[in-house]
Every structure is written in C-alpha cells, then in structure tokens.
Design a protein that fits this description.
The protein has 14 helices and no strands. The chain has 297 residues and is mainly α.
Length: 297
Amino acid sequence: MRDLRFWNRSYRDLVPSQDVLHQLDIIILSAAVGMFLFANTGGAALTGYASAFGAGEFVFGLISALPILASLVQLYVSYLIEKTGQRKKLFLIGGVIQRTAWVVVAFIPILVPEFAASSRIWVLLTLITLAAMAGSFVNVSHVSMMAEVVPMEIRGRYITTRQRTTTLFSLAAGLGAAFILDHLPGYWGYTVVFGVGGLCGIADILLYTKFEFPQLPRNERRFSLFEGALGCFKDEKTRRFLVFWMVWGFGINLSSAFFNKYALEMLGLSFTQIILFGQITSNLLSIFVLPRWGRCL
C-alpha cells in the first residue's frame, strides 16, 4: 500500500524521464492554445453568428447534427491508421484542415457577397461539417497517442492537470470572446473571434510537428471496416459503455443546439452574461474537483 505522500505528489515528480516530461508539456501547451478556438466553436458565438445570417430552427438543428454525423468518419480513420501506421501524418493533415476551415468561417461575410447572403448559411454548414470530418483524424490519432505516451502510473494526475489547465484557458477564451462580441458590432466581432481562434488552433497543431509519436506497426492482415466496427460490441463492458454514451448523447444533443439561442433571444442575455452564468460555475467546480479525482485514478 502506497503512503499518503505518493498520492499528494505532482505527476511531474513521477515522470520517468525528461524526454517524456517534455512531450507531456507539449500536449498540455497545445491543448491550452487550442482552447481559444474550441471554447467558442460550439457555444454562443456560433449561435450568434448563425442568427446574424438569418438561420432558423431547422438550421440550428443541422448545426448540432451535422458535426455528429460527420464524426462517423472516425470509424474509417481508425481503420486507416491501423492499416497504414501513419498516425502522425494523418493527425497533422486533419488538424490543419480542421483549423483552417474555422479561419475561413471567420471571413464568410467577406467571401460571400451581400447579394448572395442567403448562401452564407450553407457555406457555414459546409465548413462546420468539413471541420468535424477533419477533426475525426485528430481525435482518433490523439487519443491513441495519449494512451501510449502518458505512463499508466501518472495517468490520472496528468489528465486532470491537463483538464484543469484547459478549463482555465477555456474560461479566459470565452470571456474574451464575449467581451469582443458585446463591444464590436456587426460581423466584425465574429470575424475577430473565429479568425483568432482558428489561428490559435493552427498553432496548436503545429506544436506537434516536432513531437515524437510512438511508431505504429503497419497491419498487413486483411480485415474489413465492418469487421473492426463489430469488434467493439464483442466486449460486454465496451457494449455497456456504448449504450450509455448513445443514450446520454441523444438526450444532450436533442436540446443543446437551442440553449444559446434561447439565452440570446428569449432571455435577452448578452454574450458576457451567457459565459458568466453558463461556464464559470461548472469551470470553477472542475478546477477544484479534478485534482482530487486524478489522485484517485
């Protein structure tokens, strides 16, 4: 039984080597920088942007549904990574495309002229879907990489430290975006928020150019994508988790697309008020609770 001193130590004191510590620091730094994009891509800023284009209820449903539908690409990405072993290459390509799509989102009012204003909504939906599809390459590659890079004995401490850091940066990014949107009228506020966010996202990905992804062996065995997908349901614990996640996702996504629209239009809240009431409480709880969870894992 390990004594209390072990559980109170930072993950940095338990890392086996400086090389591993350097890689772990890059992962946290990149996640913090990327928060300036992802704190706003699915929140009130995107809702306000779509509303400014004249989006109706149906479009807001699509904004919520299309990225989830596009994430089915993850099945193919998993198959592709296992067949080729090119995890880092796919991660970087997918990441740059995903982040660049959000930079283009920022300039839709400039790229699509006023006389074709009705097309702006469909350009927005197309770019959101493209970003979600490209993000599938990032998500699958990153999760598998983390499982290999982060030593098991510090995984709980490290992941909670990373989560607490990203929570702080997410809060800062959300408040900064809210201030800009409340004080910079018209489309320019959205252009600044999504433009700066997209550039920060690209910087997040570029931090991995010198990152050493563990080498994956190329799988020469012939197997189908369908076979790989069915393999997830053979394990009972995995099957239970998938059922739980499907029920949870259905409940949340059925209504989440309209949360911010309701707050902006029906309640008349400002962007700053939405961030204050909607994010600060949960973020502060995460900051205080996560370290305790990490020591227990």
